[in-house]
Amino acid sequence: MYGKKVKLRALFLITLILSLTLIVFLVLYSLKENVVYFLSPTEIKTLNEVKKDKIRVGGMVKKSSINIINDEIIFIITDFQNEINVTYSGLVPNLFQENKGVVAEGFLEDKNYFKATKILAKHDENYMPPDLNKKKDE
Question: Cα separation of 40 and 114, whole Å?
């Protein structure tokens, strides 16, 4: 019915489509484990149940909320609608300040309390490291 060339082209096309599908699946599957989005305090308040997995919470550090007790830093992350209390033990980035953006990675104890294992400070698109800023002024 079909010639040998047509059968070879069809086989090549089917093999190509299956290979591309497998490659796309493997890439997306590997990214799924590495891509981590952050939740806002409002999104956390609307969760049906508290997640036991490691998550990230993002927002602004509430003004006058940073308290340092021994080696523990306690502060509040807000998205100006809801707030979540955060505790963290360790070093914080230089950009970590009140009224600045922050992403905290860790575990949710309940909808109001977050135990951070890592703090990531956010900056705007105009940020320039202090060393480069000094060199620019000279």
Answer: 12
Count of domains observed in the chain: 2
Q: Judge contact between 121 and 98, C-beta under 8 A.
A: no
Note whether 16 and 59 are same-domain residues: no
Within-domain flag for 134: no
What is the pLDDT, as a whole number, of residue 119? 93
Domain containing 26 equals 1-35
Q: How far is CA 131 from CA 92, 125, 135, 136, 137, in A?
A: 19, 17, 6, 9, 10
Asked whether residue 82 is assigned to any structural domain, the reply reads yes
| Chain centre distance of CA 33 | 12
Q: What is the pLDDT of residue 132?
A: 55
**Is residue 91 included in any domain, yes or no?**
yes
Which parts of the chain have pLDDT scores under 70?
33-36, 122-138
Tell me: the pLDDT tens digits for 80-89? 999 999 999 9
